[in-house]
Design goal:
The protein is an alpha+beta fold. The chain contains one helix and five strands. Strand 2 and strand 3 form a beta hairpin.
Length: 135
């Protein structure tokens, strides 16, 4: 038993007496901003200051007159479809027609609160227009 205590004491003594790592804190920099060794070129003026007699330029990116879209394949068309499922309560439909230049129609969706959302829409070439109502 005493031999184990002596061995443990010697081990602890060796660990404590062993030199720790050699840590030297880094040197503080003499200057945070050093001038580059090579010469620095002066900045170049890339633009001219505006003069008092500035001419107002006319826009160059004007949109040309809007032309009607070409007659596409599959035009004119007319379709409608709908689903009414009694088990789930789902009910929705879609009706649409187009002559190639004007598209119009409506679709209906049964909302969770029991109302039906009706979206009536048309596009005559000036953009999509929609009116949303509830029944």
């Amino acid at each position: 038993m005493s031999f184990k205590v002596v061995v443990a004491a010697v081990m602890v003594g060796l660990v404590v007496a062993a030199p720790q790592y050699d840590y030297e804190p880094p040197q503080a920099p003499s200057s945070l901003y050093e001038t580059p060794a090579e010469s620095v070129q002066e900045p170049v003026q890339l633009y001219e200051a505006p003069s008092n007699n500035v001419l107002i330029a006319q826009p160059q990116n004007l949109v040309p007159d809007v032309v009607s879209p070409p007659q596409m394949e599959g035009m004119p068309y007319d379709f409608q479809w709908g689903v009414e499922d009694q088990d789930s309560g789902n009910a929705f439909s879609h009706v649409e027609n187009s002559d190639g230049s004007t598209t119009q129609g409506e679709y209906r969706v049964l909302m969770p609160d029991g109302r039906t959302q009706v979206v009536t829409f048309y596009d005559n070439g000036d953009g999509f227009n929609a009116e949303v109502t509830y029944e």
